[in-house]
Amino acid sequence: MARHSAVHLANLDLNLLVTLRELLRERNVTRAAARLGVSQPAVSASLARLRRHFDDELLVRSRGGYVLSALAIQLADQVETICTATERLFGTGHDFDPGASRREFTLLMADYTVEVLGARLSTLLAEQAPGTHLHVRLVREAFAADIATTIRFIDGMVAPPVSRFDLPEVRSVELFTDRWVVVADPANPHLAGGPVSLEDLAGMPWVAPFQPDRGFPPAAPMSRQLVLFGIQPRIQIRVESYQAVPHFVAGTERVALLQERLATRVAGPLGLRVLPCPGDPEPIVERLWWHAGYDGDPAHRWLRESLVALAADLAV
């Protein structure tokens, strides 16, 4: 920060952390005050203190309201991480009553996982833990790459197993399985008759999720599968979302690999064909990952057991 060479916790009002989090989330003093259950003047006063501390406006007035300053954008992820870790710290060691708790859980998952489990998890929280809060962070390759650090500050990540997750301090449990299928437009002339082959796929344009700017490393699950097939696809569309993939296949000659649970949900509305994937693809295994330090946390244990139970009810 501009004015502070050293900051000591004893000299800080840690309530400002919570106010900062809500201000950066809402980008609005009135809404932040409502979320915090305090008056608007109290939040305005806290914002003034935060602006003095950071020597920055944080919330900058624009035509449509307020936008985050460059510094506030940097602070947004940090304050989420710190507040989540603090809530865990002071909640550890107590009995957990989901019906009375106001704890916030943070889960990192792909939008595909949200499609599969999201509605069930939402219903469970509303029925069993109505006072709790859930922060879903959509997975990006950068998050998963630094798993040793990331996993310390979230309640869990739902993702397939990869070698970099194999760490002594990381625990996991299987949630559900899936399989790869091919999605294509019914009018695609390359897939007019018979089953699709690897040769067919190799010569077609592709839509690919989480594909880097250059090269073709097998980091993303779909990319890894194509590498195992020996296919280096001709990618026309790159997206940072699984749910976006079928929208860029519909009405074109493009194809994509997609998880069957997602493909069967979107195929009808978009008029897509769902075809068996050739080449004996690897099964998709989605696991819940968490840091071993939370093994004894009753609230965390409740969340883990709830997610496992929700996944067990999924249709095969």
Helices, strands, pairings?
Elements lengths: L14 H12 L2 H8 L3 H15 L4 E4 L2 E4 L1 H22 L12 E6 L1 H18 L4 E6 L2 H5 L1 H4 L5 E4 L10 E9 L1 E5 L13 H5 L2 E5 L11 H9 L4 E6 L15 E5 H11 L2 E4 L7 E8 L6 H15 L4
Parallel strand pairs: 3-4, 3-5, 8-9
Antiparallel strand pairs: 1-2, 5-12, 6-12, 7-10, 7-11
Helix pairs in contact: 1-2, 1-3, 1-4, 2-3, 5-11
Walk me through this protein's architecture:
This protein is α/β, with parallel strands linked by helices. It folds into three domains: about 10-85, Arc Repressor Mutant, subunit A; about 90-175 and about 285-310, D-Maltodextrin-Binding Protein, domain 2, CATH 3.40.190.10; about 180-280, Periplasmic binding protein-like II (D-Maltodextrin-Binding Protein, domain 2). The chain contains eleven helices and twelve strands. It has a five-stranded mixed β-sheet with strand order 4-3-5-12-6, with helices on one face. α1 (about 15-25) crosses α2 and α2 packs across α3. The longest helix has 22 residues, at about 70-90. The chain is globular, with a radius of gyration of 23 Å. The chain starts with 14 loop residues before the first helix and ends with a helix.
Task: Look at the structure and give the mean pLDDT.
Answer: 86
CATH class of the largest domain: Alpha Beta
* Strand order, sheet with most strands: 4-3-5-12-6
Query: What oligomeric arrangement do these chains adopt?
Result: single chain
| CATH topology (level 3) name of the largest domain | D-Maltodextrin-Binding Protein, domain 2
Quote the distance from N terminus to C terminus. 52 Å
The 3D shape can be described as globular
Assign the CATH architecture of the largest domain: 3-Layer(aba) Sandwich
Poorly predicted ranges (pLDDT <50, ≥5 residues)? 1-5
